[in-house]
Amino acid sequence: MDRIVVRGNGPLNGQIPIAGAKNACLTLMPATLLSEEPLTLTNAPRLSDIATMSALLRSLGTEITSMQDGKVLAMSSHGLDNHKADYDIVRKMRASILVLGPMLAREGHAIVSLPGGCAIGARPVDLHLKAMEALGAEMDLRDGYVHATARGGLKGGKIDFPFVSVGATENALLAASLAKGTTVITNAAREPEIVDLVHCLRRMGAQIEGEGTSTITIQGVDRLGGATHPVVVDRIELGTYMLAPAICGGEVELLGGRIDLIGAFCEKLDAAGISVRESDNGLTVARKNGRTKAVDVTTEPFPGFPTDLQAQMMALLCTADGTSVLEEKIFENRFMHAPELQRMGAHIDVHGGTATVTGVETLKGAPVMATDLRASVSLILAGLAAEGETVVNRVYHLDRGYEHVEDKLSAVGAKIERVHGE
Ligand code: UD1
């Protein structure tokens, strides 16, 4: 298995290009199942999760041509010859559940394995299933699979989510686009990835209003056509690399970065004493003089502070001046990076969904284990701030969500390399 070796670093300077969003691409790709005509995505990220979604779609009958080194995905689902999303693929990635809505809407039935994914909490899919029921589908759970049927097709309905779910909102949007009549989703997620999905569906001919707000109204159409759509910038990759100069010092421009994607995070950086400004080609981050200040962070659905940046923010706060309290409100088991950061000398106390971090002057390099996608990259960031060498093991998690992480960081002066294992 590959490992990443990081050495404590001086200031970083230069530019880092930000890729298209993994989480947007993973919801845009299943939209191909809604149409017989081609859907082409540009600005796609080159990640193993995208390869997993490609394998899943191919298993259902979608033809996919990857061009420009994977940055362009041309998909065609003119004939679907299989309605079963198999456990062997679905278990690798929770986002696989997103084929349920579109398959059901187009074909009237679907069999989808219950997903696996990162071990960051229970993460059930009950809201996805309830949304399909609200659109008239009958759901039956057996042998680890969801068997969904909509005799006579899906019908528009009222979907009122008890709490915000990004994935369930996406599945509901995909399904309702081809349902008969009007669907109103209340307590919908407002994430930029939802807005991007709606923009793509609209290009395909869907009639949707209210994206980016908590109430989305979908007027179902009989058929959807083809489209070409650019994947929105990855706000989580953006925030992750913004933390590199925040931790090491220096000044780095994140190409393609946008404040509107990441406002709550930028406010916390500002409070910590990190400068963020809009520049010609994105966002420029610089560490002001002196030690980073402690700040309290609570994760929330968009536009709040993203749970997917909590681990990386913790890496910054490990060396801040003072005590920071991080509250995780989205996933119940998302502090698995804390014991690994402690191995590097961090002072962290975890009680339930709250982590209290008391900053130390310096971290010390150590061998550490990546436990999930965002935790892996937080250990790399911590390694950049540590004295000596940090070896991050189990980096396959990292490859699910960050393309060429070692190239992007070494281009701005970080001492980082990948060591290939057998
Ligand atoms: C998406 C992102 C993930 C991010 C998360 C929250 C993708 C591929 N993944 O995940 O990176 O961390 O949003 O921003 O886009 N829940 C239920 N029942 C359900 C669905 C969710 O109880 O049917 C719970 C989850 O366990 C969690 C909360 O709802 O506690 C929010 O999860 P959700 O927004 O659905 O996350 P995902 O869409 O899975």
Shape type: elongated
Unique ligands: uridine-diphosphate-N-acetylglucosamine
User: What share of the residues lie within helices?
Assistant: 25-40%
Oligomer: single chain
Coarse structural class: alpha/beta
Rg estimate, integer Å? 21 Å
Distance between the termini: 6 Å
In round numbers, the mean pLDDT is 95
Structure, explained:
It is a single chain. This protein is α/β, with parallel strands linked by helices and 422 residues long. 30% of the residues lie in helices and 27% in strands. It has helices at residues 22-28, 48-60, 87-90, 100-107, 126-134, 166-176, 192-203, 235-248, 263-271, 310-317, 337-343, 373-385, 396-401, 405-410, and strands spanning 3-7, 12-17, 39-42, 63-67, 72-76, 84-85, 109-113, 138-142, 145-149, 158-160, 182-186, 207-209, 216-219, 227-230, 250-255, 274-279, 282-287, 297-298, 323-327, 347-351, 354-358, 363-364, 367-369, 386-387, 389-393, 415-419. The strands form seven sheets. It has a four-stranded mixed beta sheet with strand order 23-25-1-26. A four-stranded mixed beta sheet has the order 2-15-17-16. Strands 4-5-3-14 form a four-stranded mixed beta sheet. Helix 5 (126-134) packs parallel to helix 6, helix 8 (235-248) runs parallel beside helix 10 and helix 8 (235-248) runs parallel beside helix 12 (373-385). The N and C termini lie close together (6 Å). The relative contact order is 0.16. The protein binds uridine-diphosphate-N-acetylglucosamine. Uridine-diphosphate-N-acetylglucosamine (UD1) binds at residues 23, 26, 94-95, 121-128, 165-168, 307-308, 330-331. The site of uridine-diphosphate-N-acetylglucosamine has 20 residues, from helix 1, helix 5 and helix 6.
